[in-house]
TrEMBL record, chains A, B:
Keywords: Hydrolase
Pfam family, one: WHD_NrtR
InterPro entries, A to Z: NUDIX_hydrolase-like_dom_sf, NUDIX_hydrolase_CS, NUDIX_hydrolase_dom, WH-like_DNA-bd_sf, WH_DNA-bd_sf, WHD_NrtR
Protein source organism: Streptomyces radiopugnans
Family matches, as PANTHER family: ADP-RIBOSE PYROPHOSPHATASE (PTHR43736), SLR1690 PROTEIN (PTHR43736:SF4)
CDD domains: NUDIX_NadM_like (cd18873)
Name of the featured protein: 8-oxo-dGTP diphosphatase
Nudix hydrolase domain boundaries: 10-153
Any one GO molecular-function label of the UniProt entry: hydrolase activity
Key word DNA-binding present: no
Length: 251, 251
DNA sequence: GCAATAGTGTCTATTAGACAATATTTC
DNA sequence: GAAATATTGTCTAATAGACACTATTGC
């Protein structure tokens, strides 16, 4: 059947953002409170419409800046800003009760930030531990407080984003996107521990990351911000894929 | 800014398919010839509009069946049919000169098939080696024949699909999706060799795949369809992730 | 000194990869 | 027998993980 440009089903296209960071040893996601129906008062992922002349990635970067003030890592400033990549697209016909919306979800990995501003409305945006947002993540010792699920299909989108982050830090250097421009091996290890939810041997971890070519570059400085013996400071090296990969302790 | 259902930018949403198979030791993709402008006469990936009440995955499965007669693997028939997964979404404002089209690309891995039918028009659909379709894949000994690039941004979509397939057979059992329901270790090895474009040691490969739990299940039968000593027949085991992974020989 | 974190060294069980050797078919 | 493929076995270098030990700070 030849396709007719004048008669195609109209869709709305949005971007939704899974923005992850590590705060106080916990993997956290950015959520905003919905001010109107449907799902009024519920938490949701930040996002919005793609403009008619705007690329998908540009729309995601724009929404990110609007909601958090955070900038996306450009080709120049390789060691500041957040990492952004496309995650997946969600287009179930019933996912939005008002109309047919196809949402192109994006994943953002950001260093720990001061509490976001959300265009001035500080009460309607917050960092929430993903364990508290996802049904299965509660664990046995979590005191039963199961908050309302995220609006729409955002729980599933968040779960997909978290799983992507967990698997991607295995074989890429993306864990450094959670760190400030300069960081110690211990800080990087705590990122892995928070994202994977496991404890790692500090000694083997140190040997492993410093021995992986291109992963870390020493800056010469040291810091004692974690207490104890001063630690060398590093920045992210040029490598994007890690060979050998970091191995997640077996399940 | 609250979002107004009555005023959103209208988009067309399509699905495009990267359908891969292995034929005569080569990784091949399904392409169709365009019968109308733009890019009239050029080869393109199969695809079409998502219907207004249709899920994205369902649209992809429908297009696949329409173009090839191939069925997608359901939850029941785990060892027949093709594997389908979402690949990525392409929405550059200029990617289609006629209008704003967002395409949700899907990846299909299929066993070797009789030449597809394309709704009866056998001249406008074919399997083409991906090396011949992708600019960089030509290699030094290919006799200079560089066919016209695929229409739209389909070269990039195809390249992304091929890369996804190459990396995914490392840590998942998806290589079996390229095989018939029963296959030998040698046939599976030739799939890996074709997809990665490398030669693998048959002896180490055999030990590796038969030793990975859940990857292969012997059916009891044997075959000599490859010549030589009869080989055991296997079907895909229940495992979806491979532990340990198959390692692509280093680059 | 004690507690905390950083960093190095060593041992062992496992594994990837090279490759010899044997098995079973077709011609 | 020759050629082809399948399958098992063996050896070696590299590696992951466990863990002892030392180093350097703040209290």
């Amino acid at each position: 059947m030849p396709y007719d440009p004048s008669a195609f089903p109209p869709f709305a296209v949005t971007v939704d953002l899974v923005v992850l960071t590590v705060r106080r040893h916990a993997l956290c996601a950015l959520v905003v409170r919905r001010g109107e129906p449907p799902y009024q008062g519920r938490w949701a992922l930040p996002g919005g419409f793609v403009r008619i002349e705007e690329d998908l990635g540009a729309a995601a970067a724009r929404e990110l800046t609007e909601e958090t003030g955070l900038r996306v890592q450009g080709p120049d400033d390789l060691h500041t800003g957040a990492h952004l990549e496309q995650l997946a697209t969600y287009g179930d016909p019933g996912r939005d009760p008002r109309m047919r919306v196809v949402s192109v979800a994006h994943l953002v990995l950001a260093p720990d930030l001061p509490t976001p501003t959300a265009g001035g409305d500080a009460d309607s945006v917050r960092w929430a531990p993903v364990d508290a947002l996802l049904p299965s993540g509660g664990g046995p010792d979590r005191s039963g407080e199961q908050p309302a699920l995220l609006a729409f299909d955002h729980s599933r989108i968040l779960a997909d984003g978290v799983e992507r982050a967990r698997s991607k830090i295995e074989y890429s250097s993306l864990a450094t996107a959670f760190c400030p421009p300069e960081f110690t091996v211990g800080e990087l290890r705590r990122v892995y521990e928070a994202v994977w939810g496991v404890a790692l041997d500090p000694r083997n971890f140190h040997r492993k990351v410093t021995g992986t070519p291109g992963f870390l570059v020493p800056t010469g400085g040291t810091t004692t911000r974690q207490g104890g013996r001063p630690a060398q400071l590093f920045r992210a090296g040029g490598a994007t894929v890690l060979n050998p990969p970091m191995l997640r302790p077996e399940v």
